[in-house]
Amino acid sequence: MPPVDERFVEERFVRASGPGGQNVNKVATAVELRFDVAASGLPADVKTRLLALAGTRLGADGRLLIDSREYRTQSQNREAARERLQALIAQASIRPKRRRATKPKPAAKEQRLTSKKRRGGIKATRGTRVDRDE
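-> structure tokens emitted (134 positions)
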């Protein structure tokens, strides 16, 4: 999969939460990566699968939002966000296999019917009373 075209990627750095001490309050290390799916040069079928995979990460403007704040450094978060975007695009580029309709074989039908008959017989005998006077 070729790298993502930079024209369709927009990065914004924000302050992260979590570990990092005073550094967290000073430095904007978390990255919000926005990818414009509609304007990108991806094939139409890949775009539709990507939009379906995006789910809640898709904004009202049609951009895919990937947030990364797991590392303490800006560069590591940036790299992690880009890797996640690349993985999503790679997953969307895989065509799902078409399902072929199949019919059950006659032997399988017969087996199902005999097991139903046997089970029905077991259930039918539950209601009958057994005389113990014999």
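The two ends are 82 Å apart (CA to CA).
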